[in-house]
Write a structure and sequence with these properties.
globular, Tetracycline Repressor, domain 2, 203 residues, 2 domains
Length: 203
């Protein structure tokens, strides 16, 4: 089998350009609503040029999602079992909020894939995601059994952190419609969520 040649700097640059454009198009229109023509236009490339780097719309989508799953796991990986339990969980909340601020398009792309039943990343969710969540849930359960946190279901605690932080990216238009454009939802959310989870977690 012939080894694949390493990509040139121009090839890497154009692949990144296509992926950035695709992120914009997919996050706005979903997989079904996105077209190769729209992605090529957003990237400033011809459609044949785009197809030199990616064979199909699905290949672009899967490439984006594969990188995104790993990015999504990073904040939970940082939860340390030797840290102060409450501070570790509050730091996790802050990291997830920061992701909503920094990566709103990625969050919406991920949410769309999940709502559709995760047809392209289902295997990763049932292996990588599940094993990491189970690992961290066991840590949280140990903290609860040691009396360091108020008892609750660790898995559902993690789910609640996801829902209460990612909401600000996935439903940004709704949040801003209610609060108005002169307020910073994520800045306000940080204080609110720290208070909420502090009360929930304190033994």
């Amino acid at each position: 089998m012939t080894a694949q040649k390493p990509r040139t700097r121009i090839q890497e640059k154009n692949r990144a350009l296509v992926l950035g454009a695709a992120l914009e198009v997919f996050s706005a229109h979903g997989f079904r609503g996105a077209t190769l023509d729209a992605i090529a236009k957003e990237a400033g490339l011809s459609k044949p040029n785009l197809l030199y780097y990616f064979a199909s719309k699905e290949e672009i989508h899967v490439t984006l999602l594969a990188g995104l799953v790993d990015t999504w796991l990073d904040p939970l990986r940082e939860l340390r079992d030797d840290g102060d339990p409450q501070q570790e969980l509050l730091a996790y909340v802050r990291r997830k909020l920061q992701m909503s601020r920094d990566l709103p398009r990625e969050s919406r792309l991920f949410a769309q894939e999940i709502v559709q039943g995760a047809p392209r990343i289902g295997d990763g969710l049932s292996t990588d995601l599940r094993s990491l969540v189970d690992e961290k849930a066991a840590v949280i359960q140990g903290w609860m059994e040691a009396g360091k946190l108020a008892p609750s279901d660790p898995h559902h605690l993690i789910f609640s952190i996801w829902s209460l932080t990612q909401h600000y990216a996935d439903f940004d238009a709704q949040v801003r419609a209610v609060l108005g454009e002169d307020r910073d939802p994520l800045k306000e959310a940080e204080g609110f969520l720290e208070t909420l989870f502090s009360r929930l977690l304190t033994p």
